[in-house]
Amino acid sequence: MEGLFRVTETAGLHLQLADVSPAALCNAFRYNYGDLEDCTMLLDIGAKTSNLLFFEKGKVFSRSINLGANSITQDFANESKLKFDAAEKIKIEEGFVSLGGAYEEPENPHQAAISKIARQFMTRLHIQVNQTMQFYRGQQGGSAPQRLFLSGGASIMPYTAQFFAEKLNVPVEYFNPLRNVQIEPSIDLEELARVAHSMGEVVGLGLRNLAHCPVELNLMPDSTLKWQAFNQKKPYFIATVFSLVAGIAAIGFLFDKLAAVKSEQLEILIKDVKPQQERSEKFKTVYNGLKKTQKEVDQVVGWMDDRYYWPDVIAEIRRVLVRVEAGVKGKLHTDAGVWIEEFTTAAPRTEGEQPGAEASPSPTPTVVNTAENEAFRKRYGLAPSGGPSAEQPAAEAGALPGKKPKGDTNEVATISIRCRAVSLATISPSADTETAFAVLNELKSSPMCDPENTSFSGNISSVEPPGTFTFPITITLKRPLKL
After folding, report:
1. For a Cys staple, 347 with which of 110, 179, 315, 359, CB 3.0–4.6 Å?
2. Element (H or E) spanning 327, and its range?
């Protein structure tokens, strides 16, 4: 059960709950410690229930928790198969609250069992205490407790104070209800000190028999109490509103000052940036001129490089023929000779000329196609199975439908040559054909020639007097010569 105690000018402390135990504890605590400014908790741990009270600036908040130390005894009795009375006796004589963590368990099995059960009970009780603290601070407007007092018969179990000090992180003391009570000299003070913590309710009930009882029932309705509480807080509300208005005004004034400073700095930056922008425009103009000049220089350098392009092409063809002669000599062990008889280039197209039109190469002699020639064409992939026969002109067999020749009206990319070589047919029947295909393959592997468009432009001729033969080849350059 929860309730709120309030101090009035005439009646002192008024109680708004029906339970007598919290009221008696409240009387005993206030009688011995007075009205505390800092928030203080009093936790009374009984056999069946526990009471939690908060004292702060003349107000008292209480809650009854349905957890008592009898549950420790009952759990221990069930676990140890003992009667309740025997379990209670062992709990009082040997029981303590386990501190948890890496602590060595006691050798006594009863102590080990009771310590674990007691810690579980104290953990559940701590959860209820923590929830009550959150409710008190959130719903009742209280502050965080600064101290905890323990009372009740179960609070004397060893390490109970250390447990709550660790969990709540506040100083923990035992409540002494006889602090301001005069004690008869004949009473044993040491024996009284051992049970003083459990006499809070007795002292509180005894105080109610005084002529001026500090606690009495308050039957005022909740609505009136809420209105009184609101009136007490009204000055704070008014001060808060004025503080809020003053804060908004100060923030507005500050932002106005900041806006003025930013405007001044912006004007300064505009003055500094404007000359830099003019310099940037001048730089862009000069840089564009530099790129244009660089482009013109690159074009002139290209023209200068093209001056030496044809000599390089002719030198490359000569190196091809030299490699072929060396290869034939190494294979047949006899001197071979291959040279160029005719060298022509395709003329550039004129305006309006069809893309496929090229300069007509010089007429080729009539040749005889032999089975050996056809076999070599198939071997080197020039006349695949099912493709055009060797009797067809090479230009027709190698042409691809819809493929336009490379270059434009200002480029020369095609060279037609007629090679003549010494016939070595007397040494090997296939020597002449191998020599012709060796020249073609060397040209295809040259870095200056396009292997896809370099091919025979006619058939290999028969042996002509004085023991030579000819074969025409069309060479397509990878980089056309610009005129």
Report:
1. 359
2. helix 309-332
> What's the pLDDT score for residue 409?
58
Question: Got the DSSP string for 414-451?
Answer: EEEEEEEEE--TTT-TTHHHHHHHHHHHHHHTSTTB-T
**Six-digit token pair at 69?**
């130390």
- pLDDT at position 105 is 75
Locate 181 and state its tokens.
């009570």
pTM listed for this prediction: 0.41
Q: For 311, phi and psi rounded to 5 degrees? A: -60, -35
| CB-based burial, 277-286: b 16+ in 10 Å, e otherwise | eeeeeeeeee
Kindly state the DSSP code that residue 413 receives in the 8-state scheme.
E
For the chain, residues classed under CATH 3.30.420.40 are 2-219
Length of the chain: 483
Whose CA is closest to 156, among 196, 116, 188, 192?
196
% of the chain at pLDDT higher than 70: 78
| Cα dihedral 451, 452, 457, 459 in deg (nearest 10) | 80
Place of tokens 């028999």: 209
pLDDT tens-digit map of 382-399: 454 444 443 343 333 334
Q: What DSSP string describes 103-149?
A: -PPPSSHHHHHHHHHHHHHHHHHHHHHHHHHHHHHHHS------EEE
Torsion angle (degrees, nearest 10) of CA 313, 316, 317, 322: 160
C-alpha torsion 79→85→87→91, nearest 10: 150
For residue 412, what are its two tokens?
Answer: 């020369």
2-219: CATH class: alpha beta
What does the block give as tokens for 336?
A: 């071979």
Alpha-carbon span 450 to 454, nearest angstrom? 6
